[in-house]
Design brief:
By secondary structure, the protein is α+β, with helices and mostly antiparallel strands. It is 15% helix and 38% strand. The longest helix has 18 residues. It starts with 14 loop residues before the first helix and ends in a 9-residue tail after the last strand.
Length: 162
């Protein structure tokens, strides 16, 4: 019997593996770690919100608030870790956000908050995944949405110089 971490329920994922799964990098990688993971079912991810985030310089000076679109983006990135770590992708693939439904923002997210994303798979019909996401600070829901994404083969960038 093989002992495979990706098959064990509640497995955690550290930053190095997150970077191996997602194409995002600083300042746009918005997932610090994954605390729980159940393949094809659910994931719990963490984003530590610090005053050093580049978007706080302009959103808003003197009263920093994390933009809602970036909360949704972080939610989608946690969902991306769920999709890629669940397997079923062959070769070099990328995930694109294709829909956001029922998004609600309950309160501002500010420096010092720790966002906890709980994502559950609602429907999976390759190449599409539909997931329900909730973002919490402490035990208070600060954002929720249904996100849909599509996994595609990554095409080489034809605009890069050879």
């Amino acid at each position: 019997m093989q002992d495979r971490e990706e098959e064990s329920p509640m497995a955690s994922v550290e930053q190095a593996e997150i970077q191996a799964l997602l194409p995002h990098r600083y300042p746009f990688l918005l997932v610090d770690r994954v605390k729980e993971f159940e393949p094809h079912k659910r994931i719990v991810g963490i984003k530590n919100v610090t005053i050093n985030e580049p978007f706080f310089q302009g959103h808003f000076p003197g009263r920093p608030v994390m933009p809602g679109v970036l909360i949704i983006e972080a939610m989608a990135q946690v969902g991306g870790v769920l999709v890629f770590k669940s397997g079923g992708t062959v070769g070099k693939t990328i995930m694109y956000l294709t829909g956001i439904e029922e998004a609600k923002f309950r309160r501002p997210v500010v420096p010092g908050d720790q966002l906890r994303f709980e994502i559950e798979v609602l429907k999976k019909r390759p190449p599409f995944w539909k997931m329900q996401g909730k973002a919490y600070v402490d035990n208070e829901v600060v954002c929720e949405a249904v996100v849909t994404a599509m996994v595609m083969d990554e095409k080489p960038d034809t605009n890069k110089p050879v």
